[in-house]
Amino acid sequence: MPLTDVAPLEASTEIDAPPAQVWALVSDLRHMPRWSPQCAKTFLRGGEMKVGAKMVNVNRRGLLVWPTQGQVVDLVPEKRVAFRIKENWTVWSFDLEPTAAGGTRLTQRRDAPKGISDLSVKLTDRVLGGVDDFTAELQRGMAQTLAKIKADAER
């Protein structure tokens, strides 16, 4: 049975840059290796960001390396980009909101609307220290990712 009682993970930051500038960064998922502590490489098949676009990610943690396959499931210019990971069924997203000061509130989120696959749960338990520890690591990683995006956008 898949793990079905999965709370969303979410982190947000305020960026002193307009949504269009932040969007130029986060809408190109090939930048993820620069920001994410887990993603080492992202290949976008066909090179065009659009709903249905597929990508391959190479993830790493120390000496451990593993691939995942993603597909863009939502893309609203200057507002939202979301992609689903085939192997574990999770949906990762970036949402942008303009702030009153002319900046952007950027929120990264991981949802599991269909739960997390048995395969992913078993591998997480056996190789990544268990679901609870890995979830906490992902939450910390989201904060790191947003801090790096903020730094890039504010340069």
UniProtKB/TrEMBL annotation:
CDD domains referenced in this protein's UniProt entry, alphabetically: SRPBCC (cd07812)
InterPro entries listed in its UniProt record: Polyketide_cyclase/dehydratase, START-like_dom_sf
Pfam families in alphabetical order: Polyketide_cyc2
Superkingdom, natural source: Bacteria
Protein name as catalogued: Polyketide cyclase/dehydrase/lipid transport protein
Source species: Nocardioides aurantiacus
